[in-house]
Each structure stands twice: as structure tokens, then as C-alpha cells.
Amino acid sequence: MRWTIKPKPEADKLASLKEALQVDDITATLLLQRGIETFDEAKAFFRPDLNQLHNPYLMKDMDKAVARIEQAFANNENILVYGDYDVDGTTSVALMSLYLKTRSDLVATYIPDRYDEGYGVSFKGIDFASDNDFTLIVALDCGIKAIDKVAYAKEKGIDFIICDHHRPGDTIPEAIAVLDPKRNDCEYPYKELCGCGVGFKLIQALSEREGKTIKDLVGYLDLVATAIGADIVPITGENRILAFYGLRVINGFPRPGIKALLNQVNKKNELTITDVVFTVAPRINAAGRMKHGNYAVTLLAEEDEDLATKYAEEINAYNEDRRETDRRITEEALEQIKENKEEDRITSVVYHESWHKGVIGIVASRLTETYYRPTLVFTKSGDKLAASARSVVGFDVYNALEACSEHIEQFGGHKYAAGLTLKKENYEAFKQAFEDEVTKTIDRSLLVPEIRIDSQINLNDITPKFYRILKQFAPFGPSNMTPVFMTKNLMDTGWGKRVGADQTHLRVTVKQSDSNPMVGIGFGLGDKMDIISSQAPFDAVYSVDENEWQGNVSLQLKLRDIK
Asked: From which residue to which does any coiled coil extend (predicted)?
């Protein structure tokens, strides 16, 4: 494990921010590391305000999208809301359909079958629209590369509005409107919206035409916050505002579908973005992975609590199936790497025709926990092979795939996660080309997991007031991760021990010179017990957390590593 301490801020900026905010060095440092340099920026960060959201009409083609939807309302046209089968896609479809149904009864939804149609806009979906007299498709979290599909729809008299956030190709589809802040010709100020976020900007623009304000749309933000968490987008700018208020809705008055999911996991405490990522999102995803994304949309859009409970129970069962399936396939993939003697490669590329397509992305993530390197997991999909790609921090797997595109039929995605299809006969050539490309371009240090440390502090710095300030940095996520600290020269007070059923965790009580003792818990750090029992000083990397035991609340160190 690499420990990397973030650079210290410039002294004059640190002094200026401390003076402006009347805060200590540590707080000012954390803010500057997150790009917060002035009083006004700090105010916006600590007090997110819905009125800080950008004008939706700054997004290219927004006026065209609104005009076409208003035309559809006026002409009583059938509108099909089309989206991907993952969390971002299904929340987007639920969001858009719920809003459009407040304006029209002629609205339906469509999620492509993960196995029959695959990712994104499909010819089958367009045929469905044509056969059922839909004249407008609003596509969410997909469509930016659907040039041939949009052209096909046009031939059938169907217009397209695309709301996407993925990287465009060289050509933009000839849709009525293409809303994507990542378009080179789009000057929208914030580029990191997820698909559901782009959809929200569209309903924001539509609602303004009705004379409504942003506060009238707050009830939709539980869906947006769920998508933000699940899609691992930066928690900055508009995403921070949307996540902040979305979490308020989730913790206050969530829609019946989300409430029913939370009841499945008996979550009592206030939910964070991390809880959304690890409890709500996997269950929504399980529908598309193990059954069909329609089940997720039905749950998320349901307004009857009894029905929502029934749907949530079904989806929870799919999630249990998913967990068992991805555990088994992960074991098989790890065994394949060993059998092929590929433990020392720069990449992991594995394939089996029977692996469940719905979990290969999870398996790819699991493999990076064992072999920390760019990873692809392939399975059979029709007459081709489909893969999910996952990368390591600092390496752009999308660019690596682009360099191997001669072997690929289709690919898309982001810097750290992507999907692709190729012909079976091209698998071995691609596997070698990908290994060669990554070997040529990756910095070898990126193949060692890194802990990025915000600041070195002393135990005496950790006070209830300090923790109250830390909590105000939430919601946490990419570009605003939970602050990580390092403290040197800690000593165990004699209470250090392995804990957990399999003794893989570590519990310590530590001091630093004259400090008060503090409890630390290190999940998966049981093998570090030798360092503790040596009674020599050691250094620790950790975040600060609250521990509640028998009604008593105390601060504790959530250990990441020690040495």
C-alpha cells in the first residue's frame, strides 16, 4: 500500500482562508485541497443552495428539447421514455416518466433487455415504439453514440431527444436535441452530471415553462441522489447540491419504492451517499442484472406503499441471487488467472462463455481487489463476446480500449469503467493488444494501491468540535472523499487484539505522547497485529468516525493502514 500525502496548500492562500473563515490550519487545508479558496466558495460548499443550480437553458439544445416536448403535449403525441438498465438509467426513466405524466397521460417507459438487446438504444426498442405509435423517444443515460439507431427511428417518423453524460464520439446523432454537457460544443458550466442529473435539468427547464420554481422539484431529488451515488460521479458543484438535498428527501420523505428498499435492510441511521452506494444501488441494479430493468422502474415509480413493499421484496431476492452468482464467478475467474499463470501480467483479461452477463462488472471490480490492475471480464453475448472493464486510480481504461479499437466491435464508458463487445475470434488478439497497450502506457506505481492522505495531524487535534466540522464536509464521494489523516509515533496501550469471527480485523487503543487514548478499528487489518504487539511506535492512516455502544457515542479512528 502506497501512502501519498497531498501537497500542502500555498502559504498565502492558507493564511488568507484561515483569516476569512476564522478556522484552524487543518480545516483550511482540507478546503483548499477541494478547490475552496474564498469565503463565498466556502459558504457555497458548506451551505448548498438550490438557487445555485445553473440555468438549464445554458445546456446546448435545451431549448429544442423543451420545444419538442411541449409540441408533443399540445399534439397529444405518445412519448416513450427510454433508458439504460443500471441505476442511473432506471432512476432517470422513473424521474422523467413521473414528471411527464403530470403533463400527459400518453407516456410509457422502455428499458432494453440486458441480454437480448444489450446496452443503449436498440433497433428492437425503436421497432416497439413504431409498432405502438410513439412519435417521440426521450433517451436517458444512453444515446450519445446511437447514430444509426436515431437515423433508423427518423425513417420511421420517430423523433429523438437524447439526455446523456457519456463521452461523445466524433459524430453527434441527428436527434431533435442532444443534451450532453460533455459535448465539445456545449458551454454548460458543469460537466460532471450523471444521466439522471441531465434528465433533471430537462424537467427543470420544462417546469420553468409552467411557472414553477426549483423548490417544486425537490421531491424528485431522492432519485437523482441515488443515481449520483451509484454512478460514482464527482460530488462537486451541482452534484453536491443535488446530492445534499436528495439525501434530505431520502432521510425525510422518500418515495415509496426507496422507502421499501430501505425497510429491506432495516437501515435506522441517517443515510449517507456511501449507504446509497452499498445498500440501495445494488438492489436497484440487481433487477437489471438478474431479471429486467423494468422491475426497478416499476418499483421507483410506484406510489402505493403496499405494492412498493411487494416489489422491493422481489428485488431483494434478485439481489441475493446476484451476490451468490458474483461470488462464484469471482472464484472461477481468480482460478483461471492462476491456471493460465497470469498472476504477473499488467492486466487481467478473463473469459468464460457461461458467466452471467449481469455480474461481470462486479466481478471485474472484485478482481482488482486481488490483482490491482486494469481488468476485463468477458462472457458470451449472442454471437459475440461482451466485457466489462475496470481500471485503477490514475489510468484511463477508455483510452486504452480506444487504442485497441481495431479488435473491438463497439465500446463506450468512462475513464475507470467501460463496456465493449467483440467477435470471439478476435478475443486472443485483443487480449494481447490490451496487455501491450497498458504495459506501454501505464505508470507502474499505479499498480500499487494508494491511500491519499489529506493531512498529518496529532491525536490531540481530534475533538468533538473538529468532528462536527468534518461532518459538514459531507456528502462525500469522488473529488470530496472522506478526509484521511496520518498520525505518527502512536503506541498501543496494551489493548490491541484481533477481532471478528475469523480474526481478520484489528481493534486497538492508542496514545501519542501526552494525548488521551483513542480506540481504532481496522477492518481487514488483523495481519498487522505483529506491528501492534511489538510495542514499538507506529504510524497510522485513518478517517475519524463515531462509534455508538450501549447508548454512548465516542470518536474513534477508522484505520486504513498502519506501519
From this structure: 301-328
Q: How many domains, in total, are found in the chain?
A: 3
Domain extent at residue 534: 2-7+454-562
Q: Facing residues of 422 across strands?
A: 385
Measure the CA–CA gap between 218 and 481, rounded to whole angstroms. Answer: 25
Query: Which amino acid makes up residue 269?
Result: N
Tell me how far apart the alpha carbons of residues 309 and 258 are, in angstroms, rounded to a whole number: 10
* Torsion angles phi and psi, residue 354, rounded to 5: -95, -5
Of 398, 421, 447, the residue that ends a domain is: 447
Instruction: Report the C-alpha gap between 71 and 104 in whole angstroms.
Output: 12
Place of cell 447514430: 147
**Residue that has been written with the C-alpha cell 496501550 in this structure:** 493
CATH assignment of the domain containing 441: 3.10.310.30
Last residue of a domain, one of 447, 481, 516: 447
If you search the block for the grid coordinates 504477473, which residue do you land on? 344
Q: Which of 243, 191, 170, 151 is nearest to 60 (CA)?
A: 191
Q: Is residue 380 part of a domain?
A: yes
- The answer for residues whose C-beta is within 8 angstroms of residue 46's C-beta and 6 or more apart is 472
Is 546 part of any domain? yes
CATH of the domain at 474: 2.40.50.460
On whether the pTM is more than 0.70, the answer is yes
Kindly state whether residue 155 falls inside one of the protein's structural domains. Answer: yes
CATH number at residue 108: 3.90.1640.30
Both 111 and 245 in one domain: the answer is: yes
Longest dimension (CA), the chain: 79
Separation between Cα atoms, residue 160 and residue 138, nearest integer Å: 6
Do 431 and 502 fall within a single domain? no
Are 480 and 427 contained in the same domain?
A: no
User: Which residues of the chain, if any, have pLDDT below 70?
Assistant: 267-268
Distant-in-sequence, close-in-space partners of 207: CB < 8 Å, separation ≥ 6 = 99, 213, 216, 217
Write down the H helix ranges in 253-304. Answer: 256-264, 273-275, 281-286, 293-301
Nine-digit cell at 529?
A: 497485529
Contacts of 11 (CB under 8 A, 6+ apart): none
Q: Which residues pair with 5 in a beta bridge?
A: 453
165 vs 141: CA distance, rounded Å: 6
Q: How far apart are CA 297 and CA 223, in angstroms?
A: 11
* Residue 333 located in a structural domain: no
**pLDDT tens across 433-457, in order?**
999 999 999 999 999 999 999 999 9
What type of residue sits at position 484? V
Exposure string of 349-386, with b = 16+ CB inside 10 Å and e = fewer, is bbbeeebbbbbbbbbbbbbbeebbbbbbbbbebeebbb
Q: What is the pLDDT of residues 204-254, one digit of tens each?
A: 999 999 999 999 999 999 999 999 999 989 999 999 999 999 999 999 999
194 and 266 in a common domain: yes
Same domain (yes/no): 428, 486: no
Q: Are residues 379 and 484 in the same domain?
A: no
